[in-house]
């Protein structure tokens, strides 16, 4: 049963491809060959489920990594369950592979996958990536904020006409790296990628007032499963003291704990 206090994830939200947001996540990239091989070996040993996105994020298949090639210059993937998706993946010129293992998110790209036979069964082979993104849970986990007790961000932004505009905008989600704002198209028109947002004020229930600088990273139209429509504006925290980010982590941890307790209670009914 879905949590009645949580806004459902939008049907048309694009997959999270942090690897393409190097301005935010560059410090989490691994370039050392030995480190990259160690990460891939962990995926193999743990039989981690890997999501392979292609066609600009519109298509995907689920797989696992079977082995590294003999010379450690590439990797071998199992094929997916859908023959059609396997054929489309084989034709894709760029694919993004994402897995979560031991609460660490791993993501890297492949410039094509070659169909091969491995130990008598169909498989894919790809070249060893030049870089691998490695994120701890607190760096990528995104909490949808409760509808019953919405979290509001207050800020002064610049309208499309150039005049100051005071806004109070509910948060769609929050993470250790930033927030997603839920607003209408008229207000969203005032946000452009790269815009700085100074002294944003967010009242975190039972934690206190968080004052932070942010920068707009993206925005896209969202349609929820119930048919509601809004614009999600993604913003990243910048130059925010660790003490304030700790407030965010405490809030996320508490809300997650409360939701798990509530769901556990429902399961016993």
Automatic annotation (TrEMBL):
Acts as a flagellar brake, regulating swimming and swarming in a bis-(3'-5') cyclic diguanylic acid (c-di-GMP)-dependent manner. Binds 1 c-di-GMP dimer per subunit. Increasing levels of c-di-GMP lead to decreased motility. GO terms for molecular function: cyclic-di-GMP binding. InterPro entries: PilZ_domain (IPR009875), Split_barrel_FMN-bd (IPR012349), T3SS_YcgR (IPR023787), T3SS_YcgR_PilZN (IPR009926). Belongs to the YcgR family. The gene is ycgR. Monomer. Interacts with the flagellar basal bodies. One of its GO terms (biological process) is regulation of bacterial-type flagellum-dependent cell motility by regulation of motor speed. One of its GO terms (cellular component) is bacterial-type flagellum basal body. This is Flagellar brake protein YcgR. Keywords: Bacterial flagellum, c-di-GMP, Cell projection, Cilium, Flagellum, Nucleotide-binding. Residues 136-253 form the PilZ domain. It is found in: Bacterial flagellum basal body. Residues 28-134 form the Type III secretion system flagellar brake protein YcgR PilZN domain.
